Request: fold
Amino acid sequence: MRIVFLGPPGAGKGTQAELAAARLKIPHISTGDMLRSAVARGTPAGKDAAEFMNAGKLVPDPVVLKMLEERLREPDARSGFILDGYPRNVEQAISLASLTQIDRVVFFSIDLGALEDRLVERRVCPQCQAVYNLKSNPPRVDLRCDRDGITLVQRPDDRREVVEARFKTYLEQTEPLVRHYQELKLLQTIRADGTPEAIAKEVTKVLD
Ligand code: AMP
Reply:
């Protein structure tokens, strides 16, 4: 199964991709995670990418495409994958179609108004990447990861001013993909405004 998870920032794609990938025994491939790792390692691609990411803009297509191409060539991606965060515009969708066939696109449908606070309250563990929400899913001990006790951090692009820019980028460049994949008859829409458990059920319904 070659699957794409599509939806606005903060809709729960990452959390759900992790769960579904474990269940289907295929890798979860997140271009955002790959880019953050390149930034942290200070690679040339990471240095190029950081400025765009911190401004809420898309990293240039060729940078992301090269990373993705390399990742899809790895043996674990041969039997399928869940792509989370790629494609982000129609050009990327066209590049993806020339690399591999996509079997299904799951669109996380949710009102953007519900997402801003969710993103601003998000904190992540810099060590194990566990994701928390200060309001709806706080760590047991204030600002410490439940798994390893490391101090949680806020992604630089989860600051309110950047979140607004990310929504603008989403509406202008990524949302047109809903229509694109509808026309290709690949789109399955799920409601992403419930609890993580409720969304997981919706995902299971359209994938299994
Ligand atoms: P995400 O973790 O998916 O929210 O991605 C975080 C940031 O990484 C985005 O706001 C973009 O700056 C960048 N990014 C992730 N995936 C892509 C992509 N497919 N194309 C361009 N930029 C991307």
Remarks:
- Residues 9, 31-32, 35, 52-53, 56-59, 64, 85-86, 88, 92, 157, 166 surround adenosine monophosphate (CB under 6 Å).
